[in-house]
Task: structure prediction
Amino acid sequence: MTMIAVVEDDESIRSIETYALKGAGFEVSDYEDGESFLASLKDALPELVILDVMLPGSLDGIEILKTLRAHFGSIPVIIASAKGSEFDKVSGLDLGADDYLVKPFSMLEFVSRVKAVLRRAPSSGSKTLKYGEIELVSEEHLVKVEGESIELTRKEFAILELLMKSPRRVFTRENLLDQVWGMEAALETRTVDMHIASLRGKLGDASKFIQTVRGVGYKLEA
Result:
């Protein structure tokens, strides 16, 4: 059974989220602050974290997210916050969140987003992907170009992985927003263009494989 951790200081919201997840067949542990949640990681790791941004104590949701990405990079995280500006969403996603829900939201949408993120999470049996000089290992969050490791953000990594899994397929900007960010209309498509530009810069000469399909999107092709 999938274990999900809910980190939320509002008891009523935490109870509703926990009830909805248990009703959908998940096992749930809930925490009212960041300190107790991080302490729990010494005993067991959840398979997904629901994380509020504004939490009591010395650790807010952003600090917890940074800690998770630094030490437990593969755990999917969904931010559930009342802070709903585009800046807040982009900041959270760029720091490594897999999705961003703005309160209030329906429990139907909530459970649907959880299932979608779990579907996108790398499986333990995932294999090394290779295309030209590029090599990608999902479970190690590793990318090499001509044998040299390069550092990518989680979103850059996810874009490259998606393109490498389906070479020659054209992905629209909307496709990439949906599959990488998990949000169909919450962000502008220029977000994709910015991440593609950054990814190309890091790939160096191997960026030639990421081709722009004018007026449509991007594809990976020699």
